[in-house]
Amino acid sequence: MDSITTLAKMLKDNENPKPVSMSTGIVISSPPNAQIRLNDTVILGNNQLVFAAHVLEDYEREIELEGDIRFTDSPFQTFEAKEVKSKTKDTLKEGDEVILLPTADEQLYFVVGKAVRFE
Fold first, then answer.
1. Which of 114, 104, 87, 102 is nearest to 31 (CA)?
2. Phi, psi for residue 11 in degrees, rounded to 5
3. Can you give the three-state secondary structure of the chain, one letter per residue?
4. Nearest-angstrom CA–CA distance, 50 and 113
């Protein structure tokens, strides 16, 4: 292939960039020293991963509660709670399937959540 043809092919390839699409991976080791298997040959480490906070242990979220609550042998009581904090105890663990969103150059992957499949 001559240099003009090579240049033309490079320009054409730039017009049609590869679309970025989500994928899944399997957690090999959980955070803080995470490793996620992307496929049979690629294992992603901390330097290639960015995690959504809600998939990490001890993620804390402020919530507001309103509603009815019933205690044993008593009628419903109305309650209101302001500025309540909840802390998650579940985190990514070995064997979990996660949803991954790569950057365009596939050098960095965002772990956006746990994957759930209904079979």
1. 114
2. -65, -40
3. CCHHHHHHHHHHHHHCCCCCCCEEEEEEECCCCCEEECCCCCEEEHHHEEECHHHCCCCEEEEEEEEEECCCCCCCEEEEEEEEEEECCCCCCCCCEEEEEECCCCCCEEEEEECCCCC
4. 11
pLDDT value of position 87: 75
CA angle 18, 104, 16 (to 5 degrees): 25
pTM of the model: 0.67
* 83 Cα distance to chain centroid: 27
Residue-wise pLDDT for 83-118, tens only, equals 677 777 778 899 999 999 999 888 999 999 999 999
Buried b (16+ CB within 10 A) or exposed e, 54-65: ebbeebeeeeee
pLDDT digits (tens, 9 = 90+) for 8-26: 777 777 776 666 788 999 9
Neighbours of 71 (CB within 10 A): 8
